[in-house]
């Protein structure tokens, strides 16, 4: 099947051609930073929003949110 990179390019192409809302779930922070306009970090039991980061967030900001969510 298609590679991960090919699927990421396809997702970006689809979004560029037709600006729709896409909910993309990943466990890879780098992938989230590369593909997202907004990153929502979920955690806890019951599940809740631990962080809601806008486009352009830094890797350090995401890492801090992930660390806080896992604490």
What features would you describe in this structure?
- The chain is α+β, with helices and mostly antiparallel strands and 71 residues long.
- 46% of the residues lie in helices and 18% in strands.
- It has 3 helices and 2 strands.
- It has helices spanning 4-17, 29-35, 59-70; strands at 38-43, 48-54.
- A two-stranded antiparallel sheet has the order 1-2.
- A hairpin with a 4-residue loop joins strand 1 (38-43) and strand 2.
- The mean pLDDT is 85.
Compact summary:
The chain has 71 residues and is α+β, with helices and mostly antiparallel strands. The chain has helices spanning 4-17, 29-35, 59-70, and strands at residues 38-43, 48-54.
Strand order of the largest sheet: 1-2
Overall residue-averaged pLDDT value: 85
Question: How can the largest sheet be summarized?
Answer: 2 strands, antiparallel
Q: What is the SS-derived class?
A: alpha+beta
Radius of gyration, in Å, reads 13 Å
Span from first to last CA?
Answer: 37 Å
Order of helices and strands: HHEEH
State the helicity in percent bands.
40-55%
Instruction: Give the beta-strand count.
Output: 2
Number of distinct helices: 3
CA-based shape:
elongated
* Regions with little confidence, pLDDT below 50 for 5+ residues: none
Give the oligomeric state of the chains in this entry, treating copies of one chain as homo and distinct chains as hetero.
single chain
Strand fraction band? 15-25%
Features:
single chain; 71 residues; two-stranded antiparallel sheet; 3 helices
